Structure formats: C-alpha cells, structure tokens
C-alpha cells in the first residue's frame, strides 16, 4: 500500500524540521510527506530526507490546511496519515498502521495510543518523548488491543483513502479548528470502523506556540460543540460532556490558573459563546472577530 504523511503547521518551523528528520528513522518510511503551512517561513526543511517532501501553502486554519493536503493525496495513496507537527511517533508507527489496514478491510480510520500528552500540562520536550517511548517499548498494554471510538484524535490519525470520497474537513471550524478531527472521522464511521490500536504508540508534545488566544479557544469550546451537534456529525452524548467538562475546568481553575493556560480568557470565551447560543447565534467563525 502507498502511504502519505500530512503535517499541518503554523509558527513552528524548527519543530517541523525535527519531525521530518525523525520520520527518517521509521521502520516503514512514508512514500511522501506533505507539509501544509501558510507560507515558506513556517517550514524549516532538513538538508535531506529519505522520502519526497512536498509543500502546500494557503490561508491559515487547521481544517483548511488539512484539506489543501488531503485533496491532492486522494487517488494517489492508499493510506493518508495526519500527524500534528508536535507528535512523535514510535519507530514502528507507520509499519503498524499499514499492517492494520492490510489485515482489516472494514477499518476506515486508525489512530494510535498517546502514551504521554503534553496538551494536558505545560508541554513536553523531544527528550521527554523519546524517554517515554523507550519506557513504553515492549510493555504489555492493559485492556483490549483494539477500541472503537466516536472519532479520532487528530494529532495522529490515518484514513483509508478509498473511503474518503467527497468528505472534507469543515472549514467553518476556523483557526485552531477545535473538534474538526472528531467531526471528520465521526462521519467516516458510516464507511467503516474508527479504531484505536493500543500497540501503535506515540507522544504528543503539546507545544503551546502557534495556538489561538484563550478567549478565542474558549469560544470554540462551546460554539463548535453546539454547531457539530446541530450539524448531526457528532453525537450530543460525546460533545456535551466534553463541553461541560471544559467549562467546569475553566471556572474552577480561573482563580488560580496554570501559568501555561489562559483560564480566564477561556472562561470569557465560554460565556460569550453561551450568550450567543441563547440568542440563537451558532457561528464558529465568530472567533475571527475576537
């Protein structure tokens, strides 16, 4: 099977270079990598790569950047793997993904286990990631080897290209695109299973640069959830608990916020979105006006 890796990026040129260099150590190399960025200043390519690297440029926004690389990949590749620019896959990651699709015709989307996630704390370094992967190597995972999900975590997800069809990432989910990954892959469930294979592993560094402001992000935490429920792509049983957990966390931690999270800004964004929804206004794009 032919496999392409797509890396959307914004404001992390050095990080992209590190990841491209790291992908050269995969036991199964990608047949091609596409980096999708606003312009060339966001990409720092290594001197050489053992695979072809293509660049696509255009307006920023995670959903739009994913689509710019997705469209030219369809029909040319059997497997389309998306990595965040701060995701560090285990050395066997792509080999295991290819094996999963070859052996399971009914699988539409495959993601791996995030053994450490810097998005939940101040963030991780490459050294942290490599140490975590070494520590996890050969470890037996508790629970079932394959777990079905409503949708996939966008930091690492792979699609069976032949099942994508006309489906695209929703560009109304602008900028950081909160839940654009769940929206897209949840719709793929009509074509096959969306699974996490626990033996496929990686680390999400959770780098804080290149993200939107706290108020914008807080607005998206509420507005995007309601928008996707209304759209019918994400079940309320998934979106509402996530939304309420985020609001509760922002409220509880706003008195003594973590130095790396703008809890008060997120809470202001939450409250503004709730007010807009009460007025019947469901507009994810409003964050462009904040």
Helix and strand layout, with pairings?
Blueprint: E1 3-8, H1 13-23, E2 32-37, E3 52-57, H2 62-73, E4 79-83, E5 87-89, H3 93-103, E6 107-117, H4 126-136, E7 146-148, E8 156-160, H5 180-188, E9 193-204, H6 214-231, H7 236-253, H8 263-278
Parallel strand pairs: 1-2, 1-4, 2-3, 6-9
Antiparallel strand pairs: 4-8, 5-9, 6-8, 7-9
Helix pairs in contact: 6-7, 6-8, 7-8
Report on the structure:
- The protein is α/β, with parallel strands linked by helices and 290 residues long.
- It is 37% helix and 20% strand.
- It contains 8 helices and 9 strands.
- The protein has helices at 13-23, 62-73, 93-103, 126-136, 180-188, 214-231, 236-253, 263-278; strands spanning 3-8, 32-37, 52-57, 79-83, 87-89, 107-117, 146-148, 156-160, 193-204.
- Strands 1, 2, 3, 4, 5, 6, 7, 8 and 9 form a 9-stranded mixed beta sheet that branches.
- Helix 1 links the parallel strand 1 (3-8) and strand 2 (32-37).
- Helix 6 runs antiparallel to helix 7, helix 6 (214-231) runs parallel beside helix 8 and helix 7 (236-253) crosses helix 8.
- The relative contact order is 0.14.
- The mean pLDDT is 95.
């Amino acid at each position: 099977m032919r496999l392409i890796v797509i890396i959307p990026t914004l404001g992390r040129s050095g990080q992209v270079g590190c990841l491209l260099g790291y992908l050269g150590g995969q036991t199964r190399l990608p047949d091609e990598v596409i980096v999708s960025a606003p312009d060339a200043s966001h990409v720092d390519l290594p001197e050489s790569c053992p695979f072809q690297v293509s660049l696509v440029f255009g307006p920023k926004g995670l959903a739009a950047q994913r689509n710019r690389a997705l469209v030219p990949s369809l029909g040319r590749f059997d497997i389309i793997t998306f990595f965040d620019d701060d995701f560090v896959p285990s050395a066997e990651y792509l080999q295991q993904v290819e094996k999963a699709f070859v052996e399971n015709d009914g699988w539409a989307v495959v993601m791996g286990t995030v053994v450490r996630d810097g998005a939940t704390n101040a963030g991780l370094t490459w050294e942290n990631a490599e140490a975590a992967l070494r520590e996890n190597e050969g470890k037996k995972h508790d629970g079932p080897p394959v777990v079905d999900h409503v949708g996939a975590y966008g930091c690492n997800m792979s699609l069976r290209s032949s099942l994508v069809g006309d489906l695209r990432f929703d560009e109304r989910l602008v900028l950081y695109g909160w839940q654009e990954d769940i929206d897209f892959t949840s719709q793929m469930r009509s074509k096959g299973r969306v699974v996490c294979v626990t033996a496929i592993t990686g680390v999400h560094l959770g780098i804080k640069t290149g993200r939107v402001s706290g108020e914008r992000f807080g607005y998206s935490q509420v507005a995007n959830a309601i928008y996707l429920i209304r759209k019918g792509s994400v079940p309320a049983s998934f979106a509402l608990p996530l939304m309420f957990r985020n609001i509760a966390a922002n409220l509880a931690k706003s008195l003594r916020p973590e130095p790396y999270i703008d809890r008060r800004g997120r809470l202001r964004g939450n409250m503004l979105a709730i007010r807009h929804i009460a007025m019947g206004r469901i507009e994810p794009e409003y964050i462009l006006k904040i």
